[in-house]
Amino acid sequence: MAGINRYSNIPLYCQLKNIILEKIESGEYKEDTKIPSEQELCEQYNISRPTVRQAINELTSNGYLYKLKGKGTFVARQKSCIIDIRNYTGFTDSVLDSPEPEKKEIVSISTVTPREFAKLTEVFNLKSDNLQFTCIAYLNINNGEICSINVSYIPQNLFPNLEKDIRNKKPSYEILRGKYPLVPYTSKSTIEVSYADAMDASQLQVQPGQALIVVYNILYSKSGQPVEYIIAKYRADKCRLMFENHKL
């Protein structure tokens, strides 16, 4: 394994980050075990403490390490949620298209209007800001760990009893009964990187400012009418995107 190269164009802290990452990936630094202290790393690689601290802080922010006050820095558990882009669709995080929406880990159900969330006017091509939406926030939990907080917005004029149906634990086939023209048929998704605000941090159990993978989904009926808008915020330290491509 390569050490620190002082003649390289790569900053010293980046080199140390890569060394630590290699040790994590090779299993030399195992999950939930303590890594060498800042002082030990300074002595081992003959670099300054600020250099070591910058490397450690970035690895901590990116979810590879975590700190326990008075105990040191430890290797975080591997990312438990893989978003396979080949299989991900806007339906993945949907409430309407979920086989058992009543079993979701619901955080809150409320009513909002475009006056409170202007994006709804654009998504649903609204002429008025008086339309009400059922707003359902729920957690995506994988192997006992929170991976994402998802918020779904569904027009109440299309699904007037949705809040009651969810609270009464109705399955989706009952919620959609008699509403065939409104069944989600196509979706459009956009992915971007964002950072946790105070509310995100509280719900996802992370520090404010931590990186998030945000997926915006719009679901349409067969006629092209928007029926659901979903914002899914995935913890970047718990999730990774997986791509697989083949040449034709």
Mean pLDDT: 87
Poorly predicted segments: none
The helix count comes to 7
**Secondary-structure element order, as H and E?**
HHHEEEEHEEHHEHEEE
Largest sheet: 6 strands, antiparallel
Shape: elongated
What percentage of residues falls in helices of 4 or more residues?
10-25%
Cα gyration radius (Å) = 23 Å
Order of strands across the main sheet: 4-5-6-9-8-7
Quantity of strands, as a count: 10
Please report the distance between the alpha carbons of the first and last residues. Answer: 37 Å
- Given the helix and strand composition, which structural class is it? alpha+beta
Strand fraction equals 25-35%
What topology does this entry show?
Elements lengths: L11 H15 L11 H8 L3 H13 L3 E4 L3 E4 L5 E4 L20 E8 L6 H5 L9 E10 L2 E11 L6 H6 L4 H4 L10 E10 L2 H7 L6 E10 L5 E10 L3 E4 L6
Outline of the structure:
23% of the residues lie in helices and 30% in strands. By secondary structure, the chain is of the alpha+beta class.
Describe the structure.
With 248 residues, this protein is α+β, with helices and mostly antiparallel strands. It contains 7 helices and 10 strands. The strands form 3 sheets. Strands 4-5-6-9-8-7 form a 6-stranded antiparallel sheet, covered by helices on one side. A two-stranded antiparallel sheet has the order 1-2. A hairpin with a 3-residue loop joins strand 1 and strand 2. The longest helix has 15 residues, at 12-26.
What keywords describe this structure?
248 residues; alpha+beta; six-stranded antiparallel β-sheet; two-stranded antiparallel sheet; 7 helices; 23% helix; elongated
